């Protein structure tokens, strides 16, 4: 026997023995299906516990230069590193949350034990946790997206319930944040800030998807829901905002400010506030399913003949019924949003119906418009809408009434039996004064609206109307030159919405034909006929002018 070869042979034998033992008790467990992580960890801990016996009892039996303890520690560590790599390669994407926590804790405890034994080994397994956590993060995000989707699907099948405040809610926000809380409990156990940050990003994405899904239901699927469910999904926005706010506060104590800035929870809070506006729109859509068919009855001959009360009474009664019902369901903030949106849409539809009419009549519609405006104002005031929110939204109806009712005065005839002269100069001046006030309130107003209203008046013929519109276009250009910002005050582009409902492009009306190059001052009447000074062209005054003159 060559004594000089004893040491290498002994060390090689020990390493082979340790490798076979590790494979028998631990490594073979990684080949089993399903993978039993708790059993694998338990068997590994038994082997590592032997290191204490090796240090205390075995190593003293060998020459110091054999470093038997280091041989055991290094070989077990090499085998452990290979085992962890095999687990990550084969199972990283399919491990359960509990298994991942068990593996992380196992690796931590293992390195803590090596440190307590003063064993120097490499590489450090905790540095390789990123691969494990990537699989965990992917699995968590997939699971949470599936859960959030199923939560909303099931939520829409359940009847809403009254909350502590008496309003209607569903269980979805509670279930969603319960699920999120469970996932943060997991990363809290891991104790890694990068894991907390990654989960927070995942949660932010999942909540954003959930927000988009709810928004889609309220925006596109409202017709399939009853009013109580629309109200409940709208009220849920409050709970979602509260949940996001609480989550943001919790993360402030867990993440560095630089990382916290990347978590867009504040945008989500604002986003759910926007979803609530879609809820208000959905309620408004339901209301308009009933009242929408009434608007074509406005400004018809029947309405002009005095049947206007019946149309507006029906609109008012229907809105009041819905308001009484919705007030029980909705949070006060959202109820007020519904009132505002319903009122705005009523006024827009009213204005669109007025501008849609093309036939001329000799009835002053301004009184009827003001009466309808007063009925709407009384209704919404009674429903709880503050006057400061109410008056600005009723104002367009009063403006249109003012334009419709601008008087065309007729001077007394110079000779008995002759027709009087309509004061077109005064009429044009009053229309331009109206235009100045209207543009100040609604800078997007175009003179096409003036044309549409004047066209309905039988006392203003096309020649006079064109001449007035030429003057209006001049005044309008001067007004816009002084107005740098054409954005509507208060954010409500009333006339833009009106023209959208009309399906027309808002623009200034360009007069053509008679009256375009005519000065208003040269328009006179002679012998009951309207003509232009210096020409032989004559036009019979419109019926109301002739009647007034007579």
From TrEMBL:
GO molecular function: SNARE binding
One of the GO BP terms on file: exocyst localization
Keywords on record: Exocytosis, Transport
GO cellular component: exocyst
Protein name: Exocyst complex component Sec6
UniProt keyword Magnesium, yes or no: no
Domain of life, source organism: Eukaryota
UniProt-annotated stretches for the region Disordered: 531-550
Family per similarity comment: Belongs to the SEC6 family.
Matches recorded under InterPro entries: EXOC3/Sec6, EXOC3/Sec6_C
Record flagged with keyword Acetylation: no
